[in-house]
Structures are given as C-alpha cells and as structure tokens.
Amino acid sequence: MSNDFQNASRRRFLRNSLAALAGGAGFFGAPQSLSLINSAWAQQRGAECGGDYKALVCVFLLGGNDGHNLVVPRGNVEYGHYAQRRRGLSIPQAQLLPLQAQGAPFALGLHPAMTRMANLFNTGKMAVIGNVGALLQPVSRQQYDDRTARLPPQLFSHNDQQAFWQSLQVRSPTDITPATGWAGRLAELIQDSHNPCGRLTMNLSLAGANPFQAGSASEALSVDSGPIRAVESDREPGAVAELEAVYALGQGNPLVEEYRRATRSAIDNYAVLREVLAAAPALPTVFPPAPEAGDPPSARFAYALGSQLRRAAELISVRAALGQRRQIFFCSLGGFDTHDAQSADQPELLSGLDQALAAFHQATRDLNVENAVTTFAASEFGRSLTSNGDGSDHGWGNHLFALGGAVNGGRVYGAIPDLSPGSTDFAGDGNLIPKLSVDQYGATLARWFGVSDAALLDLCFPNLANFSVRDLGFLA
User: Fold this and answer.
1) What Å distances lie between residue 406 and 46, 220, 294, 305, 474, CA to CA?
2) Which residue in 147, 226, 343, 344 has the most C-beta neighbors within 10 A?
3) Based on the domain organization, do 164 and 24 belong to the same domain?
4) Residue 273 lies inside a defined structural domain of this protein
5) Residue pLDDT, tens place only, 91-140
6) 314 and 447 housed in the same domain
C-alpha cells in the first residue's frame, strides 16, 4: 500500500470525525480533540493491520544444484545402483548423513556437508521434496522419448529455465504485456486482505532484480545487505531539497515519468528502511562472518548467502514498524553449474549453504517467528545422473527442501527415483523426469501463506489445473 493511499484514508477518517465533532458545543474550544481523533485513527489502523504474520524465503541455487548428491539412497542395494551409475561422482556410503525419513521406501542419506540440515530434518524442522521440476503437465517416459510431451520452453537452458521456474508462464514472442512471477502474483492476490498497511512492497529482494517477484502492477524492492543509504549530501545541504523538488514534478513523457516515479519510489523506500532499521535492536543471532585469507571456499559462500539472510531476518524483526503482516524474500547463491570439478566444488557450496540456512533458522527462533517463516530451496533444474568425466551436465528433475516451524518435517514428499538400470523414472537420454511440478510446490507454499481459494491459486499458478494433487502436504 502506498503512502498516498494511507494518507488519503487518514484524510477521509479525519474529515468524517471532524464533521461529527463539529456539532459538539465544545469542539472549537477543545485543543485535545485532534489528539483524540489521532488516537482513534491509530486504534483503527491497529485493528486493520493486526493479525497473523507469515514470511516466505526463497533461496535460489543458481546453476542447477545436483540433487542426486544432495539426497542419496543409503541402503546397500539402492546405494549400489547409485554408485554404479554415478561412477566418479558418488559419495562414499559411510559418509552419508542418515535421514530418519518417515515413510521412505528405503534408507536415505544427506550430503555430508549438510550436517545442520540433517539435524533439522531429523528433528522435524525440514522436509525433502523429491523429484520436482518444470512441468506444464504430467509427462511419462514414453511421451518424452517419443517427443509427444508438451514441455517447458528451452528445457536445459539456464536463463530460460530460471525465468520459467520463477514465472511459470509460456509467453508468445508477440506478447507485449509485462511478464510476472508467481511471487508477484501471489503478493497482489493477498495484499488487500493480508497486508493492508504495508509501508513497503511485500516482495523484498536481497539478490537484485528477478522475474519471481515481478507483479502486473507492483515491483519488488531490492534491498542491499550492507548499510542502507538514503539520498543525502553533506557538502550541499540544499541539494537534497532541490532533488526532492525535481522528483515531485510529474513528467509528460511516459518514459521520463516512469523513471521519475521509480526513482521517487526508491528514494522514499530507502528513507523508510534507513529510519526503521536504524531504530531496531541488533540481532542476537550469529551469522557467518566475512571470510579471511586462508579460509576454505565454503566460508565465502556462507557469508555471501548469510549476509542476504541476515538482512531478511532484520526486515522480519521490524515487520511491525513496516506495517507488514506478509513478506516474501528472494535470496540466491551461485556456482552450482558443476560441469567440472563437482566433487571439489559442490561440497564447498553445500557447506556454505548449510551454515547460512542454519543461522537464519536460528534467527527465526531468536525472533520468536519460527512457525511463521518458511524457507524453501529452488534451482532451475537438476543434473544428469551419469558423470561427464569430472562433473554432471544439465538435467531436469531435482530434489529440493523446505524448512521452518510450520513444515511437516522428517519426511520425503514426492519420490526418490529408482536408480536401477532400465528405470522408467529416467528418460532414454538419462534425464530424471519430474513427478512433481513447480506449480504444485508453489501452490503448497501459497496455501499456507494465505491463498485458500482454488480459482485464485489457478490465477497464480497457471499450470496447476493440469495436476490432480494441488497441495503436497509439507506445510501445516
């Protein structure tokens, strides 16, 4: 909700209140009347702005994380199939972290670099969502091999699949309407009902512009993980006032007006952020520190993602001052395109991911919002089961995870594929065919977040109607 809208609402409230009070004998002689009206306004806004709080935190693993080495069969027979097909990429069986997975058809292990996540899984705070991928409709091996399946565009392209994963739209080359992402559509669906008093947009990006948070009539706010700076000038105090005056004037040219509006909005938003964050107490949680010379690469990855998640935790801590009952955060960590040196690089990446996620989960506990914050992993695609000699190539289906107090953890949702030779879980080219769609994954998150109407879910997730299961069940 914009400040203009809030100010207009307040003016209407004051006008009605003044009209009512003007009939009273002592109105013009009672200076305290305006104070009473302002108090009533605050109470009304408190009633509108109160209620439950929830946040979604997307952690996008850029490059396509190798899910086959994230969640690994641990039973002797199943591990034998895994080791045979992975060859030089396989993780030694004894190093796998045991997962006490309820209902799993065979024993599973987590990558040895994910010690903290294994503990969260085994204590019921994390769930694995098996074999998720970009789908327009269910696809069988026969359909894929015969090329009769309707598939997402440019299935193995990084840019195309990042865009599709985040938007879930197949757009015509001649379509000139602005593209939107499912977080952008989700925010616009519930803004009026769940976030009427927000001083900022519900969508807050800690990783720059992204398709995920783009709305049809709203934009995400990119927030730096470092110091928040507003427009200021120490040398020329009058320069800020002059700049403010320039940006207050509407422009006739549509392009110039859009630039003015966007810049004006950014100036206002950063002023709000600086004011609110400056007044907030420091977080008690310890996040991964900046790496020092001689530290392993995992320290760099932990700090890169941890800095984003620390700022997300800070924004959660000031949610009341921002008037936000709903927040959606976008964070990212790059480096997962492991065509080579995977056995050396992926453990470092996953260790950094593990450290950052564990710190953020602890922050939600320290802020007493553990049950109100759900963090979920995303990645544009999985990777090939077979090695290319030193790494893995672009694939399709992938294993993801969600964590938080509201997660029905300690379980695997979906399915871990059959890795035996001739398995129909894999296409003829060896790529894992997803059993669950991103639409189903996102709709499960959206239902928990506040969208209960089936028609609205279909608006947000355009391919959801093609799947019989609309809620995967990993959230309470």
Assistant:
1) 26, 25, 39, 23, 9
2) 343
3) no
4) no
5) 999 999 999 998 788 999 999 999 999 999 999 999 999 999 999 999 99
6) yes
Six-digit token pair at 313? 């935790």
pLDDT digits (tens, 9 = 90+) for 419-435: 998 899 999 888 999 99
* 169 located within any domain: yes
Task: Tell me what pLDDT residue 34 has.
Answer: 37
Q: Could you tell me which of 83, 114, 81 has the C-alpha nearest to residue 97? A: 114
Q: For residue 10, what pLDDT is reported? A: 43
Strand ranges of the sheet holding 71-73, from the earlier edge strand across to the other edge = 71-73, 108-110, 97-99
Rounded CA separation 418/192 (Å): 45
3-state secondary structure of 399: strand
CATH at residue 330: 3.40.720
Is residue 141 located within the same domain as residue 22?
no
Structural domain includes residue 263: no
Which three-class secondary structure state does DSSP give residue 131? strand
Tell me which residue range forms the domain holding 37.
3-47
3-class state of residue 71 by DSSP: strand
Q: Is 439 helix (H, G, I), strand (E, B) or coil?
A: helix
Q: Do 366 and 311 belong to one domain? A: yes
Give the pLDDT of residue 335: 98
**pLDDT of the residue at 48:** 64
Does residue 267 lie within any of the structural domains? Answer: no
For residue 398, the 8-state DSSP code is: E
Q: Are residues 138 and 8 in the same domain?
A: no
Domain count, the chain: 2
126-133 and 398-403 beta bridge pairing: antiparallel
Low-confidence ranges of the chain (pLDDT < 70): 1-48, 233-235
In whole angstroms, give the CA distance from residue 41 to residue 101. 52
